[in-house]
Specification:
With 259 residues, the chain is of the alpha/beta class. It has a single domain, classed as NAD(P)-binding Rossmann-like Domain (Rossmann fold). Helix content is 46%, strand content 14%. It has a seven-stranded parallel β-sheet, sandwiched between helices. α1 packs across α9, α3 runs parallel beside α4 and α4 runs parallel beside α6. It is globular. Bound molecules: nicotinamide-adenine-dinucleotide. The site of nicotinamide-adenine-dinucleotide has 29 residues, from α1, α4 and α7.
Length: 259
């Protein structure tokens, strides 16, 4: 018997959809039947993701024409608001699933970190999630729709990491924001959860020196870095009704690192 599509009636907005985890999430949600609004700062990368959504292996999911690409900088309030307006105009409804994957690193040790590197990382990783979550929640509440909001944090937000005061603070902030949103929006039928990936093989971790990756890999009980698809599997679960009574959770996808 064919497995039913878990997200057959969903519209999913994915930020950071042009690369790594955001792209894998977009592919996975489309396979589960969702129409995907793929957003990235890099509009061409978002369009490439949408092109992939109709590709091989997606025959059972939402049809190729069901998806659309959007260019936006999530750290700008006006851009985040316009993004939600454009998505609603394009699909005639607000997104019922919102996955914030957009994120950056600007690594430096505390003693040398510039104010600009601090501000930039907080602006994209934390303020960006605030802006997208707020705009999406306003659209959902005003139209009386239920939803699932999933914010990509990091295990580093829980345990810290050398050279990442800005990044770890932004990711810890995402966990706190998610707890509060879950408390405020539960009565509107809107769930909000965060996912804490460990070390996942994407363009972001390609910037990490190999000797650091080798050291980290040695500490991972599963013995290898994760794949973006490992994170996408968990996001699909949190997006679906299979997680209908889960809100305010921080789900670690780390291969056991820092358990
Ligand atoms: N890769 C890992 O090991 C890892 C671990 C923990 C958490 N994360 C988090 O997962 C998320 C995705 O990371 P990834 O590894 O796929 O990285 P990535 O660099 O492959 O993808 C990030 C995407 O975000 C987009 N982006 C950056 N700034 C943006 C902005 N202002 N507005 C809109 N889009 C913007 C980029 O263009 C890019 O397409 C990030 O939030 C990251 O912090 C990654």
């Amino acid at each position: 018997m064919a497995t039913p599509l878990r997200l057959g009636s969903a519209l999913a907005l994915v930020t950071g959809a042009g690369s790594g985890i955001g792209r894998a999430v977009s592919v996975r949600l489309a396979r589960e039947g969702a129409a995907v609004a793929a957003c990235d700062l890099d509009g061409a990368a978002a369009r490439e993701t949408v092109r992939l959504l109709g590709g091989p292996g997606s025959e059972k999911g939402a049809p190729r024409g069901a998806h659309a690409a959007f260019q936006a900088d999530v750290s700008e309030a006006g851009a985040a608001r316009r993004l939600l307006e454009q998505v609603q105009a394009c699909f005639s409804r607000p997104p019922s699933v919102v996955v914030s994957c957009a994120g950056i690193t600007r690594d430096e040790f505390l003693l040398h970190m510039s104010e600009d590197d601090w501000d930039k990382v907080i602006a994209v990783n934390l303020k960006g999630i605030f802006l997208i979550t707020q705009a999406a929640a306003q659209a959902l509440v005003s139209s009386g729709c239920h939803g699932s909001i999933i914010n990509i944090s990091s295990i580093v937000g829980k345990v810290g990491n050398l050279g990442q005061t800005n990044y770890s603070a932004s990711k810890a902030g995402v966990i706190g924001l998610t707890h509060t949103v879950a408390r405020e929006l539960g009565r509107h039928g809107i769930r909000c959860n965060s996912v804490l990936p460990g070390f996942i093989a994407t363009p972001m971790t390609q910037k990490v020196p190999q000797k650091v990756l080798d050291k980290v890999t040695g500490m991972i009980p599963m013995g290898h870095l994760g794949n973006p698809e490992d994170v996408a599997d968990v996001v699909a679960f949190l997006a679906s009704d299979d997680s209908g009574y889960i809100t305010g959770a921080s789900v670690e996808v780390t291969g056991g690192l820092f358990m």
